[in-house]
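Protocol step 4 of 5: obtain the predicted structure for the target chain.
Materials: sequence only (see below). No template structures provided, no constraints applied. The aim of this step is simply to have a reference model before the mutagenesis design in step 5. Sequence pasted as it appears in the construct record:
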Amino acid sequence: MKINFKIAGLISLLLIFLIFITNIHFEKYNNNVLYSEKFALKERTKELQNINYITREEAISKGLDVLKDGFGINLNRDQISENIDLYESEEGYEWYIMWSENDKSQKYYCNILADNGDIKSIVVENSNFDENHKKSYEAINISKAEDIIKPLIKSLDLNIENMKVYLNYSDNYGTVLIVKDKNDNSYFYEININYKDEKIIYFRKVENVNSIEILK
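Step 4 output (structure tokens):
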């Protein structure tokens, strides 16, 4: 019996030690710092402190807000899985976020520039998409398309009155639009609308002057 008590005591001490170490780890993690789930920038953190980067939680919040207000998709963080990464691209640091519903059938992807919070892309992916929909499709006219994308444009703090919408083409899934600022030719937005339910499934900001010369 004494041996059992000693073993139980050692196990209790070990559990207390593990809990203590775990608490130290989580106390060091601060959601208000520019952290990635895969790395914490280590030595680079000091040189980035004076730059007004958006934090991990700010990026997540912004992506979820645009999904809700612009795509009509309201995700409950308690019921989804999140994978967040921070990486360096040609435009600087970018947040990459993937949300997946617990049944794994639906995924959402978002890229956000860390220096100014601009959303570069959002993709709605549904692994249960009916492949038969590829066999027939129809274009959504410009007037209807403008009505569909207005909430998205507003959620991005843009003015639809300053935008020109072009029907680029219709693919197997729906209608692809090019949306550009009437006074700025340095970039445009590519938006894909699923013709069947008239929902936006893809958004991307493209900075390429040559690609939009034909739209003038």
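Step 4 remarks: Residues 17-32, 38-46 have pLDDT under 50 and may be disordered. Strands lie at 80-89, 92-101, 106-113, 119-126, 163-170, 174-181, 188-194, 199-206.
Proceed to step 5.
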